[in-house]
Amino acid sequence: MHAPVRAEPRSWLGRLVREPLVHFLLIGAMLFVFYDAVRGGGGEREVRIDDNVAASLYAQFSKTWQRPPTDREMDALVDSYVRDEIFYREGVALGLDKDDPTIKRRVAQKYSTIAEESEASGPPSDNQLQRWMLDHAARYAQPALITFEQIAFSGTKEGAFALEAARKALASGAEPEALGDDRMLLPRYDLYPLDLIERDFGSAFAKSLPELRRASWEGPVKSGYGIHLVRVTEIVPGRTPRLADVRPAVARDYEQDRRSRSLDAAYRQLRDNYRIEYSGSWKTARSK
Fold first, then answer.
1. Which of 165, 169, 215, 226 is the most exposed place for a label (fewest CB within 10 A)?
2. Residue 63 is part of which domain span?
């Protein structure tokens, strides 16, 4: 009878190779090496704090808090910047910026700002602003000013009868303040801008005032409140202002238009380099 053969003990290397935890660690190490190689190595691991970064952090703090940062606050600002920069780079390396609508919108906004400045040529001259103002005269026109009195009545049949009775009473010397159905409106408006009259009483009412005879009770004049007897006593015609009077507004609008035109031109040029494919069931209205 043969004695049982004694099994050789497994070597420590064999046991190690069969250990699941070791498999997990090896796979993790391989992924780390691959991830580091894809990121580009050591160049991406440097965060540079130059004078421009420091000045920007300093300016942002000063603007927010209306005072310069202390030395400790400045250190904290730089630490926060470094932290954000590192997390941003690690996130980009993991592809976290892909298909994120917020990030896409922010990048598009930054590019739009660059495109808007692509045709910048310094501040506009007075001649350029003058031409702009004349081309958009309605935008800067100063409205006519009208002084008038009014007596309001409801727009019903009874209101029409009351208006005619008030007309006769006025001819007999009655006080205007004692007449009418509506006490919420002012009885008199002094040099009131025509655009505000249109806002308060309606377009039809505003357009009718310059056509009325002066210093005479006229009507009925319709408005959003009903019907009115109106007495116009003064009209100061509207006019186009001088550039000096509205220069800040004209310069602001001119610059906004320039930016808009630059952005549209840049978009048209770039779009010609792209093929837009509608691969789903949705189609543009132009293609239907």
1. 215
2. 51-101
